[in-house]
Specification:
The chain has 134 residues and is of the alpha+beta class. It has two helices and seven strands, in the order ββββαβαββ. A hairpin with a 2-residue loop joins strand 2 and strand 3.
Length: 134
């Protein structure tokens, strides 16, 4: 039976309730959802939408690094936007973090996110070189 490993880093917001930053099973890593919040838990970053997107992706990047992955290892991305009309703006920034072949992606419009955040991401990634994967 494959064990489930909990991923935890202080370079991303530490869970404040009953969830894990990410879980690894075999060569698959699945993250929780990340907003543009400060890693120290002090709330959403200032600077507007672009700052939030970049901080959310920085949080994801920190968790991926703790799991032995990079953005190049991501195979699935889920994006939540409180204003779906900001899709193109999010996508422009997103393309700075992900390159072809792009991960599969689902983007949804949501009514609201924690703390008044405007965007959230969660990802699935593979750990290269783990258990026969390269």
């Amino acid at each position: 039976m494959t064990e489930i490993e909990t991923i935890l880093t202080d370079k991303a917001p530490i869970p404040s309730s009953s969830y894990s930053q990410a879980l690894r099973i075999g060569n698959l890593v699945v993250t929780s959802g990340y907003l543009g919040t400060h890693p120290d838990g002090s709330g959403v970053v200032r600077g507007g939408f672009e700052a939030e997107v970049r901080q959310a992706l920085a949080n994801i990047g920190a968790v991926l690094a703790a799991a032995g992955c990079t953005f190049a290892d991501v195979i699935r991305v889920n994006v939540s936007l409180t204003d779906i009309n900001r899709f193109a703006e999010m996508d422009r920034i997103y393309c700075e973090y992900f390159q072809p072949p792009y991960p599969t992606r689902n983007t949804i419009g949501v009514k609201e996110l924690w703390g008044g955040a405007q965007v959230g991401f969660d990802v699935w990634a593979r750990v290269r070189g783990a258990r026969g994967d390269d």
